[in-house]
TrEMBL record:
Source organism (scientific name): Dovyalis caffra
Protein name per the record: phenylalanine--tRNA ligase
GO biological process terms, semicolon-separated: phenylalanyl-tRNA aminoacylation
EC number: 6.1.1.20
Ranges of residues in domain FDX-ACB: 288-378
């Protein structure tokens, strides 16, 4: 059914408001149709189960209860999404290539950190924010342009670290690592993990937690000690704080053995029924995997070509039938023209696709890649 009015976090959005004829609007139908689904609020969905398990951890281990939000509107201002968390004006994440803009001042949040400042200003000192987040990206089994994050935030007052003999920053960093190691143990049982130093504009120091899974280190969250500037601007001048943002799909794929990120969106009863108990501890049993079908296409790119734009076109046509879009060849000739060859993997998780169906999809992809991206097919 075509949805024409959506109610999000108490705000009504007419479809035309989102998809109006605005050159700064890069939100396609495939994304618009995901707004308001809120998979993380379904108790019998792997994302809801995971959210509830993380809530349990915080409820059990902290007498100072964390305030929980899972219904904040995903449409936020550029200021909330970027400026309020100190993302520099020229940071790539602000580009139209990486972020969905509804208009020049409004985006689909690309992280739950977009809510840090407003919640601090409202006086919250311990909070968890769960929500759908949106990023333009390439296509493979662990990337989907809509996914879910949980943000955690904790503010300390001076008496809390002064007693420890540590400075505020070291105290917060230590507390943060202990909290998240405990969470990983709560979810996974004994598990091998490691901390990796990294950079975020809103925390310093910043870390990533990786978990050893199926012979690989998998990044599951980003975190750090909140930049003093954020606290200062929001009425917490004499405090320190930590924050984390974890990717629910990544964790859920590991926890429940879910092999492809598209499955989270599936209404196939063979998927949904496996989570009907609403509990941790089940391992997903894949229903027979249908064979993928590969189609290659080569074209000469232009200066404005990006892989994210290509993936948006492919998804617009094939929807969740596309499993992966991968660059398999790339060369520049003597005249300076650059050619890319992409391999598209089509596969349904629910049924086998006919040759005819795939050929039709590929034909439309070729046409639109040419007309929308202005590349020259070879
Ligand atoms: N917002 C970061 C991301 O989406 C994660 C993060 C949250 C990092 C809070 C540090 C603190 O990648």
């Amino acid at each position: 059914p075509v949805v024409s009015v959506l109610e999000l976090g108490g705000v009504k959005i007419a479809r035309d408001d989102v998809l109006r004829d605005d050159p700064t609007n890069n939100v396609p139908d495939t994304i618009f149709s995901k707004l308001g689904l809120q998979l993380h609020r379904r108790d019998q969905h792997p994302l809801g189960i995971l959210k509830n398990a993380i809530y349990d951890y915080f409820d059990t281990n902290y007498s100072n209860k964390f305030d929980k939000f899972d219904d904040l509107c995903p449409l936020v201002s550029v200021k909330q999404n970027f400026d309020d968390v100190l993302v520099p004006a020229d940071h790539v994440s602000r580009s139209y290539n990486d972020t969905y803009y509804v208009d020049s001042q409004t985006v689909l949040r690309c992280h739950t950190s977009a809510h840090q400042a407003e919640l601090l200003r409202k006086g919250h000192t311990h909070f968890l924010v769960t929500g759908d987040v949106y990023r333009r990206d390439s296509i493979d089994s662990t990337h989907y342009p809509v996914f879910h994050q949980m943000e955690g935030f904790r503010v300390f007052s001076p008496d809390e670290w002064e007693a420890s003999g540590l400075d505020g920053t070291s105290f917060a960093a230590e507390d943060l690592k202990k909290c998240l190691e405990g969470l990983a143990k709560h979810l996974f049982g004994p598990v091998e993990m490691r901390w990796v130093d990294t950079y975020f504009p809103f925390t310093n120091p910043s870390f990533e937690l990786e978990i050893y899974f199926k012979e690989k280190w998998l990044e599951v969250l980003g975190c750090g000690v909140t930049e003093q500037e954020i606290l200062k601007r929001n009425g917490k001048l004499n405090n320190v704080a930590w924050a984390f943002g974890l990717g629910l799909e990544r964790l859920a794929m590991v926890l429940f053995d879910i092999p492809d990120i598209r499955l989270f969106w599936s209404n196939d009863e063979r998927f949904t029924s496996q989570f009907s108990k609403g509990q941790l501890g089940i391992k997903f049993k894949p229903f027979s995997k249908y064979p993928p079908c590969y189609k290659d296409m080569s074209f000469w790119i232009n200066e404005s070509f990006t892989e994210n734009n290509l993936c948006e076109v492919v998804r617009g046509i094939a929807g969740d039938l596309v499993e992966e879009v991968r660059l398999i060849d790339n060369f520049t000739n003597k005249k300076g023209m650059t050619s890319h060859c992409y391999r598209i993997a089509y596969r349904s998780m629910e049924r086998s696709l006919t040759d005819e169906e795939i050929n039709d999809l590929q034909m439309s992809v070729r046409e639109q890649v040419q007309s929308k991206l202005n590349v020259v097919l070879r």
